[in-house]
Automatic annotation (TrEMBL):
This is Small ribosomal subunit protein mS29. It comes from the Eukaryota. It holds the Pfam family DAP3. Residues 46-86 are annotated as: Disordered. It is found in: Mitochondrion. Belongs to the mitochondrion-specific ribosomal protein mS29 family. Keywords: Mitochondrion, Ribonucleoprotein, Ribosomal protein, Transit peptide. Its main location: mitochondrion.
Length: 513
């Protein structure tokens, strides 16, 4: 069959122009009619390469200059314990203060002299070192204002000096049998000088070669900041109250005892047997025995019992003389209630459940000679008004002791009793009172006018008080201090006037007081 179209025409037809593709929606939108240019295509922009340290900006991102913030160099925190040491640091000398010429020193001879009342006596150098080791100085006292530590002699100071002399005279035989034991509770308003009065008693005890046991802060025993362990009870003692030891506080007590009484304890030898564990160490002196507990707190409660036995329990036939003992307790009202410690049953532990607290309180409020110091001595407890807890039972106890000291019998209507409409007082605290208790109460009040004058003269001689010490000035300061409160008197004596000199203000210059 013949083709109507030749093959060459078919070939030409196959090689002809390709068909025009159909326009897409995108090309129709981008192309314009009657124009010879090709339709616009969707062009994808090429990513720009990152320059070193830069990046491509994001959508709607600001392209302003960026200034890098410099990292602040934070100072390193102080080492562990540095802040506490700075907070508790005691400064006892001020080189800017004037040196007082002819200042008399406190001695065993003038400690009971009533003629020294109202005068300021300096403390001897060795006594200052002993007081520092015993932690007797406090940061709230004005030791950093003067050239050297000195103390004001009050009438109560003379009374304590007379009591120490009476104890020394009562030591009749070599074993110290028949020596008297005095017990005092010192109370008073805030800043009335109770801690200074306790420091004066410790100074007099050191001068007379006594052994001083100091508890500088009773709050440490009740604030749940030291370790405590239950005391193992013997068979048949399950009905008794559970007692607890405080090893770290016992170790601190032995440390203060060993270093503050180093001269006395280094001359005394042990005379009792204290068990194989302590006797194996073979301590030659009582100081060596005390340092065993100071270095190992696990042995501290047992070592303290051994030291206390050596100082208070005499041995028949022993020719070595034991010195009297002064037990100084500051803040005794912290021991008159519940503590922040808990037992294994999560019950609150009372302060009297600790062995050290129980031992000291039994000595301070003893009703017989069983708990007395066989070699003589004194137990002095001082109350505190700074951050003190509410202890209504102890306040009732103090009122009862004061009434008994004044001769009021328990059967009299004037004898103080508890409020019948108030909460039941603590039986442990009220049980400390007994009609035969020989504890006396000393209430510190404000300074007298002669004592206030002597204190202001000491401030004036040190270059701190710039006004003339006249009777009118003393009366003014005495009235402003609330009747001679010694803490307020020291504040008024140390208050200086800005721009005021000894010769008075300059002419034409306004002085700001």
């Amino acid at each position: 069959m013949s083709l109507s179209v030749c093959t060459s025409c078919l070939a030409r037809l196959r090689l002809s122009n390709p068909p025009i593709p159909s326009l897409t929606a995108a090309s129709r939108l981008t192309s314009s009619p009657f124009h010879s240019s090709a339709p616009a295509q969707n062009v994808i922009k090429k990513k720009t390469a990152n320059v070193a340290g830069t990046r491509a900006p994001k959508l709607r991102e600001s392209r302003s200059a960026r200034i890098k913030k410099k990292q602040k160099e934070r100072p390193r925190p102080p080492p562990v314990g540095q802040r506490r040491s700075e907070r508790r640091r005691i400064v006892l000398s001020n080189t800017n203060a004037l040196q007082i010429q002819g200042l008399e020193t406190l001695t065993p001879e003038n400690m009971a002299d009533a003629a020294k009342v109202g005068s300021v006596l300096a403390l001897d150098g060795p006594v200052i070192d002993q007081l520092r080791e015993a932690k007797a100085f406090k940061t709230t006292q004005n030791w950093n204002l003067f050239r050297a530590p000195s103390t004001l002699v009050r009438m109560e100071t003379v009374e304590v000096g007379a009591d120490i002399q009476d104890v020394n005279e009562s030591v009749s035989d070599t074993a110290g049998l028949g020596a008297s034991t005095l017990r005092r509770v010192v109370t008073g308003e805030k800043a009335s000088g109770k801690s200074i009065h306790l420091l004066q008693a410790m100074s007099l005890a050191y001068l007379n070669k006594w052994v001083v046991v100091n508890v500088p802060d009773c709050q440490e025993y009740v604030n749940n900041q030291s370790a405590y362990t239950p005391v193992a009870r013997k068979e048949g003692d399950e009905s008794k109250e559970q007692m607890y030891n405080q090893p770290q506080l016992a170790a601190d007590l032995l440390t203060r005892l060993a270093y503050s009484n180093s001269d006395v304890l280094s001359k005394l030898k042990p005379i009792h047997k204290h068990g194989e564990r302590l006797d194996a160490r073979k301590p030659k002196t009582l100081k060596d025995l005390a340092l065993i507990g100071a270095e190992d707190r696990n042995l501290a409660p047992r070592v303290w019992d051994a030291i206390w036995k050596e100082l208070t329990v005499p041995v028949e036939g022993n020719k070595e003389k034991r010195p009297p003992v002064l037990v100084a307790i500051d803040g005794v009202n912290f021991w008159m209630g519940d503590t922040k410690y808990r037992s294994n049953d999560f019950k609150v532990i009372h302060a009297h459940q600790f062995t050290l607290v129980k031992q000291f309180l039994s000595l301070l409020f003893s009703k017989d000679q069983k708990n007395a110091l066989a070699n003589g001595g004194m137990a002095m407890g001082v109350t505190t008004k700074s951050n003190h807890p509410a202890t209504p039972a102890f306040e009732l106890l103090v009122r009862q002791l004061r009434a008994r000291n004044n001769g009021v019998e328990m059967t009299d209507s004037a004898f103080p009793l508890g409020d019948p409409y108030a909460k039941m007082p603590d039986a442990r605290v009220t049980g400390l009172f007994h009609p035969d208790t020989q504890t006396t109460v000393t209430e510190l009040k404000g300074l007298s006018r002669p004592e206030s004058k002597g204190l202001l003269e000491y401030f004036a001689k040190s270059g701190i008080f710039r006004d003339a010490v006249t009777d009118s000035a003393v009366a003014e300061k005495w009235s402003l201090s609330g009747g001679g409160i010694v803490g307020e008197m020291c504040k008024l004596g140390a208050r200086t006037r800005v721009g005021m000199f000894e010769t008075g203000p300059r002419e034409g210059v306004k002085v700001r007081v």
